[in-house]
What does this fold into?
Amino acid sequence: MIKSNTTFPTKFDAIVVGAGPAGAASAYVLSKKGFKVLLVDRSREAGSKELYGGRIYLGPLKEVWPDLDKKAPIHRWIKKERASIMGKDGRIITIEYNAGRRTSFTAYLPELVRWMVSKAEEEGTIFVDEVVVDELLTSDGKVVGIRSGPDEIRSDVVIDAEGVNRLLLEKLGLVSGPRPEELALGIKEVLKVRKNEINAQFNVDDDEGVAWILMGDITLGIPGGGFIYTFNETISIGIVIHMANAIRAAEAGAINHSFELVENLRLHPYFNKLWKSSDVIEYGAHLTIEDGLSFMPKRLVYPGLLIVGDAAGLILNTGYTVRGVDFAVYSGKLAAEAVEKALSEKEGATEENLKVYEDMVRKSFMYNELKRHRASKELMKDPEFFTKISRIPLKFFSELYEIDKEVPTAYEAFKNACRSEDSGPLSLMFKLWGMVKKL
Amino acid sequence: MKRLRIEELLQRNVWDVGKKPHIEINMDACGSCESKLCVKLCPAGCYTVVDGKVLFSYEGCLECGTCRTVCPQGAVKWSYPRSGKGVYYRFT
Amino acid sequence: MVRVVVGIKWVPNTQAVRFDPKTGTLMREGVPSIINPPDLSAVEFALKIKERYGGEAIAITMAPPSAVKGLEHVLGMGVDRAVLISDRAFAGADTLATSYVLAEAIKKISRDVGKVDLAVFGQETIDSSTAHIPAQTASWLRWPYVYYVTDLEIKDDKVVVSRVLEDRVEKYELELPSVISVFMESIEARDVRLLHKLRAKIEKPIVVWSNKELKLDPRCIGLKGSPTMVSKITWTLEVPRKKIVYKPKDPEDAARWLISMLLKDEKTSKIFKWVVGG
It folds into this structure.
């Protein structure tokens, strides 16, 4: 047993729970500022429990690690943005945008997080892996440290970066249990494909990648979507389904096993030629947040405690853009700056002094983005949008292109498409306009 | 290309499964459940129905939290594997 | 007070190693290493001895530098310090050359740190299953050795060990120091603890010994000291599960049903008859 008169320190300036992008960023920034930081994670090795879709926006990350784009294990810079609307009958509309500059990239999150944690360790962070934190310790209404099994360690401030499953915050009574309305389930496969085959199939160079979102029938009409991202020598494919709607679909018998949806995508005749000689080398799943503002705890700051990353609800999902990793990193940085400020005051990490973090988040681009795109949340959860409205353009193009003798005018095609969904062109226009405004 | 069973998909991962389950199911609450959403929505297929009863195995758990989110009975006592056990992601 | 040395092996996670039937090679790319699982039982056993009699537990391994990860794990369980024997000169060793190095390292611990009373090993490894190492290390050290040990009791300079065989438990009295290997199903390893892991990270109680420290004859170590040759690696086909579920009334009913099923199948009935003798 370790005796109580241990020679090593068991009191830290800050303890960060969870070594994901948010936790690693806050530990790195705090250590760099000279604070004594303990970063605790449950994984065998930093990053080995990380799973996300596949694309990361560079901007916010560079504010923490200016040399990240040169030094971090980046795979491909997103060059082509694709979006597909998929129908039941093999009809698919795909649009492609060829980007002019590099703003986002693909990386294996386990690798990237390992890199981030190693940077924090270089600055002096003590990183402890293989340890599950069971509880945030409180005293007189203030968070004063962590407990894991029989062991307790104290700190002036705790940064909660535990992720989407907020076991610690739930235990403290700061947030309620998980609500299907606010969450979505992401399931993905990693396919091994030769580099030159990826380059040829997707028409990209060695360091260029594709981000591809899919909607419609790929999720059997359940609000959500599919995704395809290219890496150096792998392709990530997956689906995300809104949990409340997935529950309804399961109750209605429309879905037997969630994992079949990803296999449907891998075997889909429109896509499977892109990875015909592939081998599935990894399979995983993770919860993600559908509605960040609603998932966000009432406050991000409590006495001795700050909440960052997924746990703080900082994920933006507009349907065409998903931002989680960069938000997490940025919130970690803001939390670290707030802690620096608070600990320089006489009273230390009081709620009053930490409050500056809450203000920084609310003034930041993240909060702005979440607010600006809030309306799109309703759309993302709306089964009608995902079935009916996505079928109309498919019908329109089938009327226009699948011809025998007569070519309809575009207006006729549009009218027919609307009629097929029991809708007049005018009422549809209004509906569409209403929806587009939300995007 | 052939469709892979969930067991085959899970086999592609690196695992270091601990001896103790990290999730506990309250079988009394579970037994009275009609919808059995866990069976349909758990992405690892950890929940299966045998003779009308839900059978749970923690070994293939991807530690995502779906079961605790969808269980209408509140029967899932959910936690993480200790000592670094469980799934080990490399390319995700 | 006892000083226990526990040997661990840093092995590829064999569950994750796939076999390429086309080339006949193991696909180890991206497969992380783990501590040989039976060795975790040995660590647990060593920690129990230390707790019962006082003293210290020292982990040793011969491995590449990445094995620090594994040593941190056992330090996290409560091992006091660790020795990483790491040198290119030791690479490619078979069990003979490995056990030689381990034995010399144990002698060096006795010289530098203090007399070693017990060397504890796991029953076998998941990547080769030879179970040679504890026996060979004991031979090099000229210490007594008992395998499949489930318990022991130290009395003065002697130790009484219990070893399980299929149908009996045997007790042996050995002189200390001695070597044992721990029956792998007998004991479950404890969890890593936050304070132990924190100590491992801050105090870094791991020393690295290369052949500069051990000063062993180059002809006896590494590839040169290894007479073993692997001529071929082959594989067995996966047997698909039959997925038959039977709900027995009682254990006897279960056994009866199982035997009837084994006899029904052509392949298993042959094996079954051979095992039970007709």
In short: The longest strand of chain A covers residues 76-86. Chain A touches chain B through 55 residues (CB under 8 Å).
